[in-house]
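Example complex used in Figure S2.
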Amino acid sequence: MTTTTLAVLVPLLPFLGAVAALLLGRTAPGFVRPLVVLPTVTATVLACLVAAEHGRNGALRAATELAPTGNDALPIQLALHVDGFAALVSVLVGVVACCVQLYSTGYLRDDPRYTSYAALVSLFTAAMFLVVYSDDLIVLLVGWEVMGICSYFLVGHYWETRAARDASLKAFLVTKLGDVPFLIGILALATEMGSFRISTVVTRIGSSLSGWELEHPTLIALLLLAGVAGKSALFPLHTWLPDAMAGPTPVSALIHAATMVAAGVYFVARLLPVFTASAAALSVLAATAAVTMVGSALAALAQDDVKRVLAYSTIGQLAYMAGALAVADRGAAVFHLVSHGAFKALLFLGAGVLIHAAGTNSLAAMARMRGLARRAPDACWTMGVALLALAAVPPFAGFFSKEAVLVAAEHAAHGDTPGVPTGAGWTVLVAGLLTAVLTAAYAARLWLLAFRGDGPQKAPDHGREPLVMNAVLWALAVPSLAFGLLNGVLPDWFDGHSLTPTLTTSVLGTGCAAAGFIVMYAAWRHTTALAARVPMGAVAAHPGGDPALSEAEAIATHEAAYGDIAAARDPADPGRLLLGPLHRHAAHGFHLDAVYAVLFVRPVRAAARLVRFLDREVVEAYVRGAGLAPRLLGGAVRRAQTGNAQTYLGALLAGSLVLAVAVVLAAAGTGGA
Amino acid sequence: MLPLNDTAMALLLAAVVVLPLLGAAAALLPAPPGLRGSGPEQAVLRHGVTVTGVVLVAALLLALGFDHDHPATVQAETDVSWVPALDIRIHLGIDGISLPLLVLTALLTFLCALHSYFRMPEGPSAKGFVALLLVLEAGTLATFAVLDLMLFFLAFETVLIPMYFLIARWGGARRGPAAWKFILYTLLGSVVMLLGLLLVGLEAGTFDMVTLTTDNAPGADGPALGHTAQLLAVLSIGLGLAVKTPMWPLHSWLPDAHTAAPTVGSVLLAGVLLKMGTYGFVRILLPVAPDGMRTFAPYLAALAVAGIVYGSLVCLALARRGAGGDLKRLIAYSSVGHMGFVLLGIATLTRTGVNGALFANVAHGLITGLLFFLVGALKDRTGTTDLDRLAGRTGAALYGRVPRFGGLLAFAAVASLGLPGLAGFWGELLALLGAFHPADGLSRPAYLVFTAVGAFGTLLTAAYLLVVVRRVCMGDPDERPAAIPVGEGEENASPGANASPARAEPPSRTADASPVPVALPDVRGHEFAAWTPLVVLTVLAGLWPAALLGLTDPAVQDLLPGVTR
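Predicted assembly (1238 residues):
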């Protein structure tokens, strides 16, 4: 088989698996597991083969027409472009998808809806592969939105709970709010560049001889950025991501950490020349990234739900990638994307084990349990590794990739990167260092509260975790530990920029992380004493059920048990001590949802009411009025129908008389003339 | 693909048009011995399935025999003089524009006949029902097959009568006024259209669409119609077609008609009848009166995007809790929005836009047809289409109670919101692409605004459809039987729901005030048979848009000479 065939099979296999699982799911449930797991594993192997082939022979390109549009310059093509970025990201997608599918067989082992769940995960994997490999903007958009709808369905997996119903709707609509400008941006870009092909667009922008030039680079870049912000959860369109944690944990790991949210960053990386054509767009991206980083890190410090902490940390890490793109270093961005994909998937999957073991998702309750680390030792160790990677401690993967971002920002700040405003560099650098402190702090808080809890209550025994779940955790721990060591090899796959850490940023970054750890540890020591005074516990309703059931119940009861979906009234929380008065706002994502309600939801609702009123009272009134006129006319004419022969004869006589007079007059008139 | 000679093709097309008419006449006769079945009702319903099935097979044969390499040329042509005094000819033929609509009509009618075989709508005799259904099919098929303006008008009008009776005799609550409104509204539009058609025919000296089209092609000696005649033609014919489409603000017959019509009527109304309006725009107005269209295109586009946003907003209002929204009514308004995209595509006067319009036409027929089938089946099961009564406090939880049905409903909703990869997307995309860069001579800034507003409309569309899915498919299944006394939700509803006494609850309200049954049957065999083709085609058209675009694009290029995009 040629490499092209292999590459085509990569998105196709999981798609076919999903279709087969959906069709056979009810009649032959036993086949569902192999039908969703095997195609994903095969696709991952093929993705690795394609990547290896890329290592030998360079980029792979192929295209065939999918459909004409009527505009001869703009056909829609099924085009394939596998360069280093695509090859590497596809391997990440495949590995994480395999891990998640395997983990799900244990996590949802008793779930009656496993079939639709697994098929959607499989379909999602196919869509992400499509986005990664596609060279055509419209085909990319297909994958982009299919991922959105899969995310919608999977977030709504526990649709019995209100949180999941709300979150699924919000996830789709907020990303769609970004997708509307995104679509217009794609249309504008394709119209101005005369092609839907990404590689063609990039070539035409890159060469001054081609005769093609972007007329409105800033506008197009900003329109596209709106879609990227929606997908990659950048401020101000990030609000769907924390709420999306109402979905099952493996979904959070796959979709909301490692792949779908990465699609936005990946898209910018593919089309970077479009964005670097406009310094203003880069500045906007840098500012967005900075606000997102710092804000999300503060919010992560205040969350009580362990998955919401991770969700906000995802937003922060995505902002690092966006920051790297803002300083025009896509190598660093994709480097961080891949290493983050590995350790964040691990963190979420570990959190799934943790929630099952503890019977709650509340950190406040976990902090009052003795011996949780002993109940879930694998989660304790592997999450420790992943949290160190998240906090960018050497030699874990996150250290190298985050350093690459900081180095790129430092270069830009010194004006060494042509086309990038130095202000953008400084913004990313300063925000990145500040966030490093905060990241280390919330990573430490999560670990201390979850695994170093102490209290009268012993951690409940919910049985051993399924072996497959623990095995997946250790499998992901390997790249979280060691992926960064590849920093010397990766530049060959990317643009060739060095990704090796420099001394200055290493010292600064590690120092920041250390400061964060120390402050959090001190605060934790200070507040643990308070924990005994306010007891908070957790009781799992069905301790024998599968992990998905405990999680669904934990989500459904968090608000009732702890007073809020995001926070808990826990004076022993070190985050509360450190944030002080800011805590209330940070816990609720700085009230951005209220802003959305005022800006979008309420006006649209008011408009809907107004339009319904107009439809009922105005448009209908005209129709009724039009109907009324003939009826009145008919009524008037009916008056004449009295049934009285005298009246009729009288009218006849009068009419004849009038006519006769008229005729005579007319004849006289013509005769006179 | 299938080697058929011209005579065979012409005969096939003639058969497609004439067979349903003969079948309608036969349906009124007593069944011959041997075909009586288990009773007169069953026999005549089976007759309906047979005839529509044969027509579908003939239409599929036509599609197979169609020369796919030359979709722009008129094929399967019949041209016979009919009224020599007025130079009216029986001129039939199909090309890449009409073929998909022809097949769609045959398919949807067959599925409707199949559906009513198993589930006859309540009303008078089945005989009349089948006969009317077949007349309706004949009229629609003829509309798409004829190439003569007067025949087009005749076919266009033929459709109204059976639809009127379907609504007025076999409809649900408030069917009488709805049927009246439908017929008066559309007849009024048709009268104006007739004037326009006569004007075109008399000015140009022919009623033949092919001749009229070639007269305007480059190389011909000037357009057949003068500028003023073109303006008048577009105004009058356009008005008649716009009522049918329906274009905002001429849409108000549609929600009432849909709400009152039986399931089969709704499916055909949305799936086929609305297409006749937009088909007329493409087939008649674009080639015959290009100058007139250029003058009126911006207004058409403005009304189209107004319709997109307006329809979506009404749907949002209907979908809200306590609004007393009716699902059928909601889907009817969503049709206003979707047809807005079709009109927007036409109004761009670009190949891309017109391709998009034709694609969206077919896609809307498939998806909305499916939606109406589903809502009709929901009404069969629960006895109501009232959202508040269905949803209760948390939602109707169809995912849990009838998983396949819930899944199908979610699929249809997702397809309807224009998800890429399903049929609904390509039409919207191409219409927006066309509007982003409209034909030369049209105001670019105005169309940019239209593009933005139309794209925003897709967001609103997604919003109301997902709200509906949330209220119907999701919810707490355990909470329903005890906690929610059905009907109480309405008493608690906001006062706005009862503000208009004219639109108050249907008369049959007392009948279906009984609680929604808790155990519902999942998708039945015949429903599965009727819906599967629509689902499969929706996915197929979404994944392989070239199947349709390859047919329409060459034909559209011929319709719009001198346009390069």
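The two ends of chain A are 102 Å apart (CA to CA). The mean pLDDT of chain A is 87.
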